[in-house]
From TrEMBL:
Name assigned to this protein: TonB-dependent receptor
Localization annotation: Cell outer membrane
Main location class: membrane
Domain of life: Bacteria
Topological relation to the membrane, as annotated: Multi-pass membrane protein
Signal peptide coordinates: 1-20
């Protein structure tokens, strides 16, 4: 399929609709109905209607859409949305690497990840790498904002924001049960129960996920995971007819994970022979995490036009990723990233890692990447709207005070390798590898004004961020943190972030929108680390004609300074220090379309959805990052780990008793080091085409049988070369189960 032709066809379609616009009398736009305030505490959009009427690009995935494929892998969920670039890592979506419109994808650190409107990275200001990611199984909807439509949300305003809306308290008594089991002994079970009364409501849910994994560890062993997730919500509220309606919502969430995940991949030669192999040197690797969230939300609705919502929150996350970091023996040493890139230079070290070479001494250095995080704060926003004649006004004002912290207390253990088995030789002392605390305090405010007159909607706004960052490094010789070797540094950032969006609705079938806003991402604890800065533009059209609906958007992000970070996850040392990368241009096209071939049939539907993303991201200056995936950069080099072409197609057949869904996605090749021209074989991740299918048979109104197949064609494909070596995508997997609703 020629992807450029698809894009050209959609652009041509939008222009054709403009020239043949319907002359029927327009219906009154429902946005002028002042009976409801659209502001909702935990949602950015709330519906597809709101997404279609933003003055910037937005996408809303409903619960029904999330349930179609029964995806538990967030990479597969977000892969359906234009403008989202992802590279996988573990095949299950445990720790995704997400980019919106060409932002750096490493650990999703340059976008705002939220759950119920609250920042969810473990420490979103002081250590924004998303080593915790919310469980999509328990989500009611997923909202993605890009361009000027996300100026309200920060601190990262370049690419956009992704908000996960968790299961809400139901209006009536409700029970949901679902479970599936299949390949690699993978189990996914979910249950919830909830109800609402006149002045009280509740909802409790539990999700269990586990798998033995699809990779084959030398000498045997699991390569999967075990995860638990519990959420409880309670609400008390006044009577609906109270003079000032008020509600108080409490949310508690707890999750834990133990996953046999590693940073160690495969050499090119081994990947070509056995792509699902895992070397013996990764047999002790384990990620162990716990996450807790508390939220308390107060809503006061003074009348139909004015509402204030205030949320206090606290997130705690602790994790220890115990994993092979480097190898040392016989006077040689190498990081695992360098070793797998150059195995011929270190035959002894590589032999120890793959288990073919015995070594009695301490050679395999496993790092306890032991860290604890918290983030807490209080945020409030008020919305007031009114009419003056034929002009609709809406004013939203928001304020947030936030604190977060990353506490590193790490050490290294030494193992030998005998007959393919690792044995602990040298137990490290906690705190002797990395022993430091980084914290942040941030005050953020925003104002967004919406003006609607006739067919035109304007939304000017601005955001302000005041950020104070501090790092205290106690050093490897002060594990008791007495401060005798304390090294401190700090940085303060003040940023004013304006933006404006516009939407012009020609009629009920065609509209144009666009905007310009400032892109920003905060620097680190060193004053010389300038914040990421860009000016971002977008221009698009939405159409809906004879059942064919869609959107085409062009975007251009002009970076004056792109920030890079030293992540171990991208082959770096893992200090998280940031560095200035200078000027970068990111431009592209996002297109989506939907059509139901049986829209006139009352008993069946056959909807088709298409989406395409073209992204061109290039550096505009020379520099040597000396870190991770960028390497030595020249003017004109492409930014690595960004596919130029991505395409997704979904086709469904839905009847009263039966439904079937197919989803196909194409992800173009991308380079793993900055460069231009043809991609060298050892710096490339090849393109792939993956098909997933699912089906449901509804035995009764309350009970359904389910099945789904991941990677129907059993395609063997690579997804990344980081953290160290080539990594495979999920192979063929088949799963069956049930759903019960009451």
């Amino acid at each position: 399929m020629n992807l450029k032709r698809v894009t050209a066809s959609l652009l041509f379609l939008s222009v054709s609709l403009l020239s043949a616009q319907d002359q029927k009398t327009e219906q009154k736009d429902s946005i002028q109905d002042l009976k409801e305030v659209t502001i909702i505490a935990n949602k950015l959009l709330g519906s597809k209607f709101e997404a279609r009427n933003r003055t910037g690009s937005a996408y809303f995935l409903s619960k029904q859409e999330l349930m179609q494929q029964n995806y538990s892998d967030i990479n597969r969920v977000l892969g359906q949305i234009p403008g989202v670039n992802i590279y996988e890592e573990d095949g299950f979506g445990l720790r995704p690497n997400i980019s919106l419109r060409g932002t750096s994808p490493e650990r999703s650190s340059k976008i705002n990840i939220m759950e119920d409107g609250i920042l969810l990275a473990p420490a979103p200001y002081s250590a924004s790498a998303a080593y915790y990611f919310p469980n999509v199984n328990r989500m009611q909807s997923v909202e993605v904002l890009k361009g000027s439509s996300q100026i309200q949300y920060g601190p990262n305003t370049t690419g956009g924001a992704i908000n996960f809306v968790s299961t809400e308290i139901p209006e009536d008594f409700n029970i949901n049960l679902r479970s599936s089991f299949g390949s690699y002994n993978t189990l996914n079970s979910y249950a919830n129960v909830g109800d609402s009364f006149e002045n009280f409501g509740y909802m409790v849910e539990y999700n269990r996920r586990q798998s033995e994994g699809f990779k084959n560890l030398d000498n045997g062993g699991d390569t999967g995971f075990d995860m638990n997730d519990v959420v409880a919500k309670f609400r008390i509220n006044t009577n609906a007819d109270a003079k000032v309606y008020q509600s108080l919502d409490f949310k508690f969430q707890f999750s834990d994970e133990q996953s046999d995940e590693t940073y160690l991949g495969l050499t090119d030669e081994d990947f070509s022979r056995t792509p699902f192999r895992r070397y013996a040197g990764s047999q002790e690797d384990l990620m162990d995490t716990e996450h807790t969230q508390f939220m308390l939300t107060h809503t006061a609705k003074f009348n139909d036009y004015f509402r204030i919502t205030t949320t206090a929150y606290r997130n705690d996350f602790k994790r220890n990723w115990y994993k092979l970091n480097d190898v040392s023996a016989a006077g040689q040493s190498s990081s695992i990233a360098n070793l797998l890139n150059n195995p011929g230079d270190f035959p002894l070290l590589f032999g120890i890692v793959d288990g073919s070479q015995d070594f009695a001494g301490s050679a395999l250095n496993l790092k306890n990447n032991n860290r604890e995080y918290y983030s807490q704060g209080i945020q409030t926003k008020a919305d007031y709207h009114f009419l003056t004649g034929d002009v609709y006004h809406d004013i939203e004002v928001g304020l947030r005070y936030h604190q977060d912290e990353e506490d590193r207390f790490q050490w290294v253990d030494g193992y030998n390798m005998i007959n393919g088995n690792m044995n602990l030789i040298d137990a490290g002392v906690p705190g002797t590898d990395s022993n430091r605390v980084t914290d942040a305090k941030a005050l953020a405010a925003h104002i967004l004004y919406k003006l609607k007159y006739g067919k035109l909607t304007l939304t000017p706004g601005f955001r302000y961020e005041n950020i104070k960052l501090e790092r205290n490094d106690y050093g490897s010789n002060d594990v008791n943190r007495t401060g005798i070797n304390l090294s401190s540094r700090s940085n303060e950032i003040n940023e004013f972030i304006p933006g404006i969006g516009a939407n012009y609705k020609l009629n009920q079938e065609l509209s144009f929108f666009g905007g310009v806003h400032k892109g920003f991402s905060p620097g680190g604890t060193r004053p010389e680390e300038s914040s990421e800065q860009s000016v971002n533009y977008e221009l698009g059209t939405r159409f809906n004609h004879n059942g064919l609906s869609g959107e085409v958007v062009g975007f251009y992000n002009d970076y004056s300074n792109l920030l890079g970070s030293d992540f171990a996850a991208t082959g770096g040392v893992g200090t998280l220090d940031q560095f200035n990368a200078g000027e970068v241009d990111v431009k592209g096209i996002e297109a989506q379309a939907a059509f139901d071939f049986l829209k006139r049939n009352s008993n069946f539907s056959l909807p088709l959805t298409l989406s395409y993303t073209f992204t061109d991201a290039t550096f505009q200056n020379n520099f040597d990052s000396n870190v991770g995936i960028w390497g030595e950069v020249s003017d004109g080099d492409e930014v690595p780990y960004i596919s130029r072409h991505q395409f997704n197609a979904g086709l469904s057949f839905i009847a009263n008793k039966f439904e079937a869904h197919a989803n196909a996605r194409y992800r173009g090749e991308f380079r793993t080091q900055a460069g231009s021209g043809s991609i060298p074989a050892n710096e490339k991740v090849g393109s792939n085409f993956i098909v997933d299918i699912s089906a449901k048979y509804h035995l009764t109104q309350n009970f359904s049988l389910t099945s789904n197949v991941i990677n129907l064609l059993d395609t063997e494909y690579e997804v990344a070369r980081v953290p160290a070596g080539l990594r495979p995508g999920h192979p063929f997997g088949i799963y069956g189960g049930f759903e019960f609703r009451f």
